[in-house]
Design brief:
With 99 residues, the protein is mostly helical. The chain has one domain. 72% of the residues lie in helices and 0% in strands. The chain is globular and about 45 Å long.
Length: 99
């Protein structure tokens, strides 16, 4: 199957799935990093800092794409980023509550 034969909605879905997966993974990397640093001095939890960082990075990359000729700023991309980070954050809360 050639790329031109793939329905457009499948390409769009795949793009959002990749965005969500990237930010799911980014959350866990950031959470690990914040666990190993002195984030406690800021009086916030590593998971909270990681989700904030992930959302900030997602928003920043979308806005910066306004000035890149071959890229486009899409709210749906940021939504997929936020969903991926949010799901990871929710999973981290579930894991933390288990004995």
């Amino acid at each position: 199957m050639r790329a031109s034969e793939i329905p457009h909605f499948l390409v769009q879905f795949n793009d959002k799935l990749i965005h969500g997966t990237e930010y799911f993974i980014l959350f866990w990397i950031a959470r690990y990093a914040f666990t190993k640093t002195r984030i406690q001095k800021l009086n916030c939890r590593p998971a909270g800092a990681a989700v904030f960082y992930s959302l900030l990075l997602g928003a920043l990359t979308e806005v910066l794409q306004l000035w890149v000729p071959t890229r486009s700023c899409e709210l749906a991309d940021f939504g997929a980023d936020a969903l991926g980070a949010g799901l990871a954050w929710a999973l981290s809360l579930i894991i933390r509550k288990k004995p």
